[in-house]
Structure formats: C-alpha cells, structure tokens
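Input record (one chain):
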Amino acid sequence: MNLIVSDTYQRALFSTLGNFEVFNYFSVDKLTTRDASKIPFMIWPNGEPCLIANLYMLSLLDRKGRSGRNGLSRRGSKGGTLGVYASQVSQLIRFCYDNDISPFTLNDSLFCSFIETLRKENSKFNPSQPKKTETSLLAIGKICLDFLSFVGRIHGDDNFVSSEGVIRAVELTYTITTRSGKKMNRSCLHHHSLGHEVRIHRRDPITSSQIRKLKEASYTIESSSFIKHRRRCMLDLLEYTGARRGEVANITVDDILVAYDMELPSLRMETFKQGHDAVRYIPVTKMLLHDIKTFIETSRRKNMKLTSGFRSKPDHRFLFTSERTGKKLSSETITNEISKLRTHANIKEQVCAHMFRHAFITNLFVLLIKRHHMTNEDDFRRALLDSHTFLAEIMQWTGHLDERSLETYINLAFASVANYAETISSVHMIRAIQTFDNKHEELMYKLEAGLPISEYKKHVAILIELRNKDFEIARNREPIVAV
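The corresponding structure, as predicted from the sequence alone:
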C-alpha cells in the first residue's frame, strides 16, 4: 500500500461549539442534560462530521481534569485541554482520510507509518529542522493511542490497542502525589514507534531587556494610536500579572475598574486549565491600573464609538477589542501582536506571550528568596513544604494546582538572585518599586521621542502620587506569608 502525505492546504478539523448541552440521563419521566459548551466538534478533511472522533470527545467529558473534577478543561477560544486532544487526534484523522482507511482498520505497521510521517515533516520556518520535536511526537502518540483504544472498545475489541493487540502498545503506570500527600496511580499507553520518554523542554522566561525592546517597539512601529496604546497595556498585563494569553483576552473593563477602587487592589483573572468557572485574584499596583483605566476612558471608548458594529449594540465590556470590528480580541491576536513587536524590535531569540508568565513566576520566587534571605535551593524548598499558607498564596497568584509545577522556577530564581543582598522586606513593596522604575523609564523614552516637558511633568507627578499610594498599600498588604 502506498501511503499518501497530503501537501495541500490543511483545514482545521475541529471547531469549538458555543453554549451547548448534551443528554445525560432519563429518570422518573424526566430528561436531564449536562453542559458541553466549547466542546470540539470534529470533521473529516472533506467537511463531513467525524462520528467516531466526536464520540471520543463526548467520552472525555467524564475524564478527570487537573482540578480533580470530572471533565477536562474547555476554557479558551480553542477548547482548552479538550481542544489539545482534538488537535492531536486531528492529525491521525487526516492520515486516515488521505489513505482512505478507517481508524479501526489501522494496524501496528500503519500506526508506525503515521508516526514516521509526522517525524519527517519539516518546519515551514526552517526546512532544515523537523516540524515536531520528539517530545511533541510523544504527546501526539499518547493521545492518539488513547483515541484508538476507545475506537476498539466501540467496535467490541477491548484489546485493539494492547501488548498483544492489533496495535501493540504497553500500558505504563506511574505515581503522582497530590497536595494533601495522597498518592495516586496513573497510566498511559506507549508505542515502540515513539521511542523513549524525553525531557519536556520548557521555554525560558522573557528577559527584562527583551521586555524593554518590545515596549520601545510598541512606540516606534507604524500603527494607529489605538493599536499602540492597546499593545502597551497588553504588555503591562502580561508582565505584571503572569496571566496566560487567553486569560488576558478575557479581562473585562469591570475587572479593571473594580480593582482600581479596592483598598488593596487585586485583579480578577479567569484561570484556565482549572475547570469552567475557576478564577483567581492577583495583587496589582495602582500605577498599572491607572494606565489601563486611561486606555479604557480614552482609546477604547473612542474606538467603540467609531466601530459601526457597536453603535447600536451594548458594549460587551471586554478590555481588548479589535480596531476594525470592536469585537473581543482573540488570544491568537495577542500572539500575533507579540510576534510583530519582536520582529520590529529585531529580537533574534524566541519571544512569545507565555514567556512573560515564566518571567512573572520566576521573579516572584526571586522576591521571596530575597525577602527571607534564603541562601540555597534546599532552604527554599523546605520553606515551601513547611508553610502550606506560603504555597497557597503563591499558587493563588500563579493559578497552579500542583506545587510540583513550580519546581522548575526555583532553579531559575536562584540563578537570578546569586550574589544579591536585599534589604527591603516586603515583596509587595519591591514590586511597587519595580513598577515605578519601569513606568518612569517609559516616560523618559516618551520625553526623548518628543513628549512636551509640561506633559512629562504632569505624568511624573501622577506616577509619584500613585507610587506613594502603592507603598501604603504594600505596607497594609504585607503578609505574603512570614516564614
């Protein structure tokens, strides 16, 4: 059989449904439904619905997610974790379609060919490099094996994917420890074509120098005043909240205004990867909120009035909007904005929105290490283990569910803090000082770019006033936790 690899335009094979409910059960003459909003709906490349893949998506509604609740995350424009499953399975669906075979007629040899096809794909940005890393192949393979195991069960063959099955895969079992100390066994399927488990590469945090270049680019790149203002606010929120791009896209005008009026300002943030309604509150400065409130009252308000689609419609209240349509900005647009600024700033290294999150968490650990005068990583790990409140507050800021996810940032933090002596004891005070320094540096850049001296003086006076308020807030907010 000659296998086919399609080199034509590859349409997306799934889209997320809006508000949607599915049948749950029928009892006592009453039909009960359950929420399935944003569940991926899967199709074949010719546009016809893919029944077996959609049945698999429905089955995942009962799978436990990170939060321990039933159902994987469906947050975000692409369906969250459930969307990741759909994206990975799409690649197997495309392979089956191109070669005119059903998923149930796959055998071990064909699955090997599928993995090898993915392995041979070249990057469109650098044709000399593979499109997918071995880590990516491993992730795709595991999900596709899980899907094929489901396919086998649907067709009455529980051993379709097994050590002696049509597709020869072994079940690997591993143990995880929950926050409460409870040990839980988990398992996954592994196929010989996938090779050995490899270390997952994590992106490095964005550097302060790269952030500065991106901010300078936001002033000099050729764009409308609205786009420039929106980009600056976007960069600030990524830097000072550590939010994911989809979480930033979901911030509302009311979130900003409510936080601004708080005695101890904390910004409400939807938390992806933690179930449907999870939120967290991140301590923020008046300086940050003032700049974004100014954007709301000037650039955003003017743009919404000019946008034809919203002249007679109620404001949707999302903070970031499209200049052309006035609709809510997508998380993909945030990715594209960072990419444009990176290109304009001539930054050669990889820079993306999620690297701001890595920097935020690393910097948070740096501040805590400085505050408590930790001298080595073991001392800091013991402090984390000895204080559940300490861990809980860090995880509230970052939106993590498992403290082990924070482990990688400890090494990064100690690398940043080496040979540093800090006398300021408040984490919140340090963050306020850092924000003031960064905001004042931006004003100096504006002054050099032609900002009138009178305007510069006015902005500095406001910044100093807000800084002093933030210092008072920091003193009142003091305990991030005394260890």
